[in-house]
Amino acid sequence: MTKPAPILEAVRLSKLRPTQMSVGLREVAAKRAEWRAEHGRKAAKWLGRHTVPVVRGPKERLYLIDHHHLARALHDEGVDKLAVSVVADLSGLARDEFWVVMDMKGWSHPYDAAGTRQAIHAIPKRIADLEDDPCRSLAGELRRRGGFAKDLTPFAEFLWADFLRRRVSVDDWDTAVARAEHLAHGTDAAHLPGWCGART
User: Do 116 and 94 fall into the same domain?
Assistant: First the structure.
């Protein structure tokens, strides 16, 4: 039995519902800069390469399950629509059952900017209302520098962010990045997705 192909459609960014509570605003700023570099003649082609996965939920609402930073960046840049790929249709479920399934599949991350789990209803209803988690930005910078490998584990970078927030102060960004790079290659990080091994 073959798996049905995802349904592709263009939707208004204002209609997309988050499934997490925070983003790293430094990450969002980097994606905004990337968008501005492509803005103009190449903008449509760039957007075509950035389809985001969503789940159709109760009341036919679309829930973003990845690429929250991209969605927030495009929203902040005034982009109206984004192509989405509907990877699952859970619209027939009651709201509470829907969130149980989302949680069990690793499609939701109801943790605030301090890494504390919250009730599902605390997840914002709009991309624009996602709060800043500086440690999520630190994890993104660490990955770009080769501190850990990209991994398919759901919310892998938030796992790294939570690891870092317990060990690194982000008051001085350059110092925080250097400390994060050092910690990423220690055995204390060996349990994390994408760990690249200890430095010898």
Answer: yes
**And the tokens for 107?**
């499609």
| Tokens found for residue 147 | 């501190």
Q: What is the CATH number of the domain that holds 168?
A: 1.10.8.10
Task: Examine the domain organization and report whether 91 and 166 are in the same domain.
Answer: no
> Are 146 and 99 members of one domain?
no
Cα 62 from Cα 87, distance rounded (Å): 11
Residue 199 lies in a domain: no
- Rounded CA separation 124/130 (Å): 6
**Cβ-contact 79, 46 below 8 angstroms:** no
Q: Which domain holds residue 145?
A: 134-189
pTM metric for this prediction: 0.90
CB contact at 8 A, 150 and 143: yes
| Complete edge-to-edge strand list for the sheet that includes strand 7-12 | 7-12, 81-89, 52-56, 62-64, 16-17
10-residue averages of pLDDT along the chain (200 residues): 57 95 97 83 74 95 96 93 93 97 96 96 97 97 96 92 97 97 96 88
Residue 58 to residue 72: CA distance in whole angstroms: 23
Q: Give the start-end residues of each E strand in 4-114.
A: 7-12, 16-17, 22-23, 52-56, 62-64, 81-89
